[in-house]
Design brief:
The structure is a homodimer of 313-residue chains. Chain A is of the alpha/beta class. The first copy, chain A, has helices at 10-22, 47-56, 74-81, 92-106, 111-121, 149-155, 177-184, 198-206, 209-215, 237-243, 250-256, 274-279, 294-309; strands spanning 2-7, 28-32, 38-40, 43-45, 127-130, 138-142, 145-148, 162-167, 188-193, 221-224, 227-228, 231-232, 263-267, 283-287. Chain A has a single domain (2-144, 148-153, 165-309), classed as CofD-like domains (Rossmann fold, 3-Layer(aba) Sandwich), CATH 3.40.50.10680. In chain A, the strands form four sheets. A seven-stranded parallel sheet of chain A has the order 5-2-1-9-10-13-14, sandwiched between helices. A three-stranded antiparallel sheet of chain A has the order 7-6-8. In chain A, strands 3-4 form a two-stranded antiparallel ribbon. The longest helix of chain A is centred in the C-terminal third of the chain and has 16 residues, at 294-309.
């Protein structure tokens, strides 16, 4: 049976990495958000896919979570000198990924096949798949008007107040081929919503009608809370929860995923929330969720897998 | 009055560099071949323009003549690891030029304006202009069929026997705006065909009807022979001359440019050709043409300018 992990950026990548340490390659599919994919300098850039790939390949920069460790910036520095745009950081080795992906996509190769080929070259045995073959650009609705995801996230550093988020074309987009295939073959027996940003990383995945449909079957679905002790480990999740009128807590996460998840995994720092979460009808796993080391990732993955497989959807 | 230099790759770049050491920026236009421009990894690459730019900016690799000195290859090495194409060498700093050019062209900026902006950022005071705003891809006709220029030049290392060369769209292509402007204003008083490959670098320039028209006016036009002592300083010029049934000598060069040039500049190594060249009706300047050092470039440029301005078209 196959565990389906839904992942976005850094938090998702680390959970996926943990799961890859515990599960055989044929027992795990890591489905990655494509809502933050964008075209920059003529290149198709897929930050979430790249973060997951680099993390599983052991190449990720441990400081930032994104990008490549010991990266060089020769191209970027020259682009700056030429007066080109420098708001989106492009390391030399990272750039090779974007160039090769863009080349393969331009040659007509499917997004999932390009990802498969890149993973193969990076010696990643586990399946990393884009959630869809199509682009589903995330549009962040703010008090200052609509912003593209990278404009909001990188250029404006998540500062604008968000009033809503939409995913252009999501309702018409199909799941990517490997994902569709696994679902049709009835292989998936549980779903894990990794501790990625619920609004910006997981929601664009849930926005696909075929994914919603899967999650309303009898499959057990758990989410690992990206909020620990009232704060997001990384990124604007807590800020967005406040902007959306949700408490920035595991309770807010549970409310957001209501109707989708059967269980929630929360950090020991949030022990006080357990009762309320159980009262809302959820099963709760209380453990260490801050994945600072490979050991924590692996232990958490084992616990989460035991937990999700103990549930009934 | 403005001197118009027609240039291709390395030899053209070195002559243009010499001219830039002697002439004020407003007295020189370096018009560069675009026949070898191509799109690779989604990037618009203009090898001849780049070679001229890098040479005038003092960045050129003195060993190869093309590319940037002390270049790094981090992106290229990663592309290789990802299984991407590695037949066309792309240095990190060079890549920045292609990325920024591609970005500006995609934004609708004219080729000549993009070149102007890149030159400005590289602190080049002299005017380097693409011969046309349009693409005029050189097609090399060989015994094995038609090849794109880079396929012939880089991928197949000039090995296939060439039966002809054509320039797609040349008869419909106009001169680039700065060039058109200078001609319309009657500013150009002489033309120098730099010692670039006559078939692959200068012919694609001469293939433009507006350029042909300019060269059949009363302007003095000289060519510096890229053949010295029966050999090309660089590249396949001598091989092509043999394939086209021309002697690989200054006489062959003179025959090729017949009807276009009034004078020819040849190396002292070819002194034996002077009489025959004069008998063919050409004025001849015999001097050192092998531009190994900046001093030779500058001296040659002074001599060529005195020579061309002594002629009547």
């Amino acid at each position: 049976m196959v565990c389906l992990a839904l992942a976005g950026g850094v938090g998702g990548a680390r959970m996926a990495h943990g799961l890859s340490m515990v599960l055989h390659p044929e027992d795990l599919i890591i489905a990655v958000n494509v809502g933050d994919d964008f075209t920059h300098l003529g290149l198709r850039i897929c930050p979430d896919l790249d973060t997951v790939m680099y993390t599983l390949a052991g190449l990720a920069n441990p400081e930032t979570g994104w990008g490549i460790e010991d990266e060089t910036w020769n191209v970027m520095n020259s682009i700056k000198k030429l007066g080109g745009p420098d708001w989106f950081a492009l390391g030399d080795r990272d750039l090779a990924t974007h160039l090769e992906r863009t080349r393969q996509l331009a040659a007509g190769t499917k997004h999932s096949d390009v990802t498969k080929s890149l993973c193969h070259r990076l010696d990643i045995a586990h399946k990393i798949v884009p959630i869809s073959e199509q682009a589903i650009p995330t549009i962040v609705e703010t008090a200052e008007g609509d912003l593209s995801f990278q404009e909001y996230f990188v250029k404006q550093k998540c500062k604008p107040q968000v009033t809503g988020v939409r995913f252009a074309g999501a309702t018409e987009a199909g799941l990517s081929h490997p994902l569709r295939h696994a679902i049709d073959a009835g292989e998936i027996d549980c779903v894990i919503c990794c501790p990625s940003n619920p609004f910006l990383s997981i929601d664009p995945i849930l926005a696909l009608p075929e994914m919603r449909e899967l999650l309303t079957t009898a499959l057990p679905v758990v989410a690992i809370s990206p909020i620990v002790g009232g704060r997001a480990i990384k990124g604007p999740a807590a800020k967005l929860m406040r902007e959306f009128g949700l408490p920035p807590s595991t309770l807010g996460i549970a409310a957001h995923y209501s109707g989708i998840i059967n269980g929630i995994v929360i950090d020991t720092a949030d022990e006080a929330d357990v009762l309320a979460l159980r009262e809302s009808g959820l099963k709760v796993l209380l453990t260490d969720t801050v994945m600072t080391t490979d050991e924590v990732r692996e232990t958490l993955a084992r616990q989460v897998l035991t937990f999700v497989r103990s549930l009934h959807g």
